[in-house]
Amino acid sequence: MQGTLDTASNGRNPATNAAMGHAEHEDYRLLGLMTFLFSESLMFGGLFAVYLVYRSSNGAWPPAGTEVELLLPAINTVILVSSSFVIHRGDSAIKKGDVGGMRFWYLATALMGIVFLGGQVYEYLNLGYGLGKNVFSSCFYVMTGFHGLHVLVGVLLMLGVIWRSRREGHYNAEKHTGVEMTEIYWHFVDIIWIVLFALLYILTLF
Amino acid sequence: MTQAQISMDAVSHTEHPEAWKWYHYFWYNTDHKVIGIQYLVFSFIAYLIAGVMALFMRAELYTPNSDVLDPNLYNALLTNHGTMMIFFWVVPAAIGGFGNYLVPLMIGAKDMAFPNLNAIAFWLNPPAALMLTISLWFGGAQSGWTAYPPLSLVTNNLGQSFWALAILLVGTSSILGALNFLITIYKLKIPNMRWDQLPLFCWAMVATSALALFSTPVLAAGLILLLFDINFGTGFFRPEMGGNVVIYQHLFWFYSHPAVYLMILPIFGIMSEVISTHARKPIFGYKAIAYSSLAICFVGLFVWVHHMFTSGTPPWMRMFFTISTLIVAVPTGVKIFGWVATLWGGKIRFTTPMLFAVGLLAMFVLGGLSGVTLGTAPFDIHVHDTYYVVAHFHYVLFGGSVFGLYAAIYHWFPKMTGRMYNEPLGKAHFILTFIGTNLTFLPMHELGLQGMPRRIAMYDPQFEAINQLCTYGSMLLGVSILPFLINAIWSWGWGPKAERNPWRSLTLEWQTASPPIIENFPEDPIVWAGPYDYGIDTEADEDDTTVEDMLAEVGAEAR
Question: Is the CB of A157 less than 8 angstroms away from the CB of B216?
Fold first, then answer.
């Protein structure tokens, strides 16, 4: 947004500053979100490292009795990865000032996220073992659950964006930081899932 | 957190009264100066409570038998003394308190980049304190501030869980604060301040924040796994289920070794400010000190296994981490030499902040030397988990961080409160603290070398005499807080009014009123001298205005 650090205005013009909403200086929220996601990725990084150490120090992986199914998570992966493209259509729409288009694509992405979560719950119910079975099952449930929590937050963010966009002009071609932040967050959730899918499902084949 | 960021533009922080009233400090407020004071007062109360815990522990250790405290209570006090001193005193006071108060002022900004996020980060602390109180109510966590499994899995599950929740909350607060500092310094530094004119405290905060962003989430992962192991029957740290207890130690120390730099890097920044100002000399080796902070931040990420030399660590790891630990002493030494060279030939004024800074130099060198011995695997294996370790980290944490915090409190007291502290009381405080610290912690080296294990309520009678010496010292330390409390409370309310710039310091925070007005500067400040250009203007020939003249212009005449 406008309102760079300008010594002439120096924030002493509250009328214009307040009208811009995020007063006083440029909007650094995107940068803030990326920094936060960087930090967040290290939390997942810690979990990934833990998982790989357990995998290398245990004989059979996954241990007998805790096999995973592949078909449903593969479908889920396709859904989640393609949702990243869908949400990007929404971002392109708002950049052209098309609020209706943005709402449509964001709703579609949110629905895909909900389908993903539903698939996840279905998988949990049909695996036949709980998280206390052995260290693999512990890793499996905690890591996918932690990621699922992020998906849920992403869905809520999208619904929040749709809810806020009901007001005429809340988002427009120039002012749509919230929309962009949601998209970046969703891509992050997506990338984490790809790594998780490789670790928890593909790696169990070898 | 993302939701909080999104809703931030809804609240404008431009509407505020002329000046803050006392009650504004007790409620949600986005002014970085209010938040800084909130952090400082909050953490100081935690310091007093944790200090009383320590005094009870020392009273218990006066005799070999347990006659003051029940051993379980001793364990709870031991855990919470460490936890509170680290997570509720040094980290929030140094980073949250002084970082928040000083960084925007020093870079000439009106506030932090994300004022609301800043306030949210502070207000995560009171619930964390509540969690810790609940944990104590249920008997307290028993397994030390490190919470190693299996001990943390088999002792007081309820207390341990609430303890972990408290740490998760302050960890989140720390991450949010760190990203705020990084973006604030990077983006809001006034344009005519070059990077090599950035005060060294801000450089230290850059390094600190980067380190917090890297390491804190890994601790969070470890604590979440621990919580699941305690409450939901997972097997991460249960060997019978294929888990591994050493994994926890890796996750824990990947954060908690950098955490010791989180606790000392801001203090190093404070040292550079205080020593240069009170010695009236340009800091020696500005760039070396600035870059050594970054070097400590980087190397500090690769030394954590030196806490685990006795955890079945393979020899190649011991070798690697011994070497990296010794390397991290190099940038620290660069700083120490920089400060000593700054003092050399300076016009030293032995004000209270300077006394604490010089005291810190002496204490930290001792603590650093014992750190080098501990970082060397062959020696560490002999003294691991003895009082030698306790002596070492109290020299760097008390003699380092706490001395630095006292120096900072005295140095910025006139700026924060608008009133001067009482100098004789400050000196009395320093003398009592310095003697008390050495009396308490110096004998512990000998205790450790003789083989007394730490974290125990009862010990072999042969260690009794030295333990009594330590207990006398700790009681002296307990008394030493009294002149400080009297001084701080009395001066805050009724001390003589402070000028704008009583130390005639050159960093930007001294260019505004004491205490600063709500948006810091009536107009954007101008960088007319480097932050440490003391004394070098006397030979200025081409330009008639000297630094002395310019100091006079902002109301800081030579005395």
Answer: no
